[in-house]
Specification:
With 381 residues, the chain is α/β, with parallel strands linked by helices. It contains 12 helices and 14 strands. Strands 4, 5, 6, 7, 8, 9, 10, 11 and 12 form a 9-stranded mixed beta sheet that branches. It has a 3-stranded antiparallel beta sheet with strand order 1-2-3, with helices on both faces. A two-stranded antiparallel sheet has the order 13-14. A hairpin with a 4-residue loop joins strand 2 and strand 3. InterPro entries: DgoD-like, Enolase-like_C_sf, Enolase-like_N, Enolase_C-like, Galactonate_deHydtase, Mandel_Rmase/mucon_lact_enz_CS, Mandelate_racemase_C, Mandelate_racemase_N_dom.
């Protein structure tokens, strides 16, 4: 046992928020509370919880999780759950390091030795995908993901969808599987057309075909196409996931470990998905701590399918990348579409604390981009 002595957080480029917990015996753990575009809000929540949780037993992870959920009156949502994720992941890392085992050993043990992964191509305004897809293939990937479209009007010209079909065909010509992310930027009148047009070309999945508040529309769309429907990055707890499972409108659940309250809740969400024959493919365009935490859960889940990783993602351009901030970046090497299981203690990564502290000194918060249409209207990003 050991009481929490300190909780620190570090805003670091390109858009990540790391958390470090130290107990009274000097044991440490690292977590990630990144919430893209809302760093200051999460930092404010962490400030409040730091004052509360210093002095709590670091081993009592579930107690701290339930305290954060049940005694806040206002619960859930992206800010609270991202702050909680940073604390939860760090506590799991601390406990597993103290015991000298990987986190997956504390979650019931592994059911696999390597994990299928995919990486991004194309950017927010997708283009030049053939060269980027070839580069991913050369890196060892067999699967990629790209945005389906640029920004669209609520009802746009049907021809605005043609380039998506062309890009998918180009990527598949290299022998790669490709997921298409609608990114919630495609509204129902266009999403119906695009889902139907893509179907003959067999994308790996279509992601967030509509925003998650439109569950009825997603259900209708799921009945329109045989292409697997993926979603979940904007669902923040098992309670928010449940209606989609009950509606039978999701095939691949993509919870983000930094947005759902960490390892504890991700494991519970995975178990619920298994009961509905829904695959787990965690969302993770974030940093190495979040990805390592995903891998620890993925290793233990029978219904795990594929893991997103942010290696070389467009958001990292000109800044730090997935291989930054850790001393063992080789853990992210991809071979034949897979990465190996992380075998080290705790999260299985060694955080370069000196680099974290140095780059956190003047780090600015990342601001989410936005799209403006030709009439001056705001469009979904």
């Amino acid at each position: 046992m050991g009481k929490i002595a300190s909780i620190e957080y570090f805003r670091v480029p390109p858009r990540w928020l790391f958390v470090k917990i130290t107990d009274e015996n000097g044991n440490i753990g690292w977590g990630e509370a990144s919430l893209e575009g809302h760093t200051q809000a999460v930092e404010g929540c962490l400030d409040a919880w730091i004052g509360r949780y210093v002095g709590f037993e670091a081993d009592e992870i579930e107690h701290i999780w339930q305290m954060s959920w049940r005694t806040s009156f206002y619960r859930g949502g992206p800010v609270f759950m991202s702050a909680l994720a940073g604390i939860d992941i760090a506590l799991w890392d601390l406990k597993a390091r103290k015991l000298g085992v990987p986190i997956y050993q504390l979650l019931g043990g592994k059911v696999r030795d390597k994990l299928k992964v995919y990486a991004w191509i194309g950017g927010d305004r997708p283009g030049d995908v053939l060269a980027q897809a070839q580069a991913r293939k050369d890196q060892g990937f067999t699967s990629v993901k790209m945005n389906a479209t640029e920004d669209l009007a609520w009802l746009d010209s049907p021809s605005a969808l043609d380039s998506c079909i062309d890009r998918l065909k180009a990527v598949k010509s290299l022998g790669l599987d490709a997921g298409l992310d609608f990114h919630g930027r495609v509204h129902k009148p266009m999403a119906k057309q695009l889902a139907k047009a893509l179907e003959p070309h067999r994308p790996m999945f279509i992601e967030e075909p509509l925003l998650s508040e439109h569950i009825g529309g997603i259900k209708a769309l799921a009945n329109l196409t045989s292409t697997p429907i993926a979603l979940g990055e904007r669902l923040h707890s098992r309670w928010e996931v449940r209606p989609f499972l009950e509606a039978g409108c999701v095939d691949i659940l993509q919870p983000d470990i930094s947005h759902v309250g960490g390892i504890s809740e991700m494991k519970r969400i995975a178990a619920i998905c298994e009961a509905y024959d829904v695959a787990l493919a965690p969302h993770c365009p974030l940093g190495p701590i979040a990805l390592a935490a995903c891998v620890q859960v993925d290793a233990t889940c029978a219904n795990f399918a594929i893991q997103e990783m942010s290696l070389g993602i467009h958001y990292n351009a000109g800044s730090q990348d997935l291989t930054s901030y850790i001393r063992n970046p080789e853990v992210w090497n991809v071979e034949d579409g897979y990465i190996g299981l992380l075998r080290g203690v705790g999260l299985g990564i060694e955080v370069d604390e000196e680099m974290v502290r140095r780059l956190a000194r003047d780090a600015k918060p990342w601001v989410s981009p936005g799209f403006i249409g030709p009439g001056g209207e705001i469009r979904e990003w």
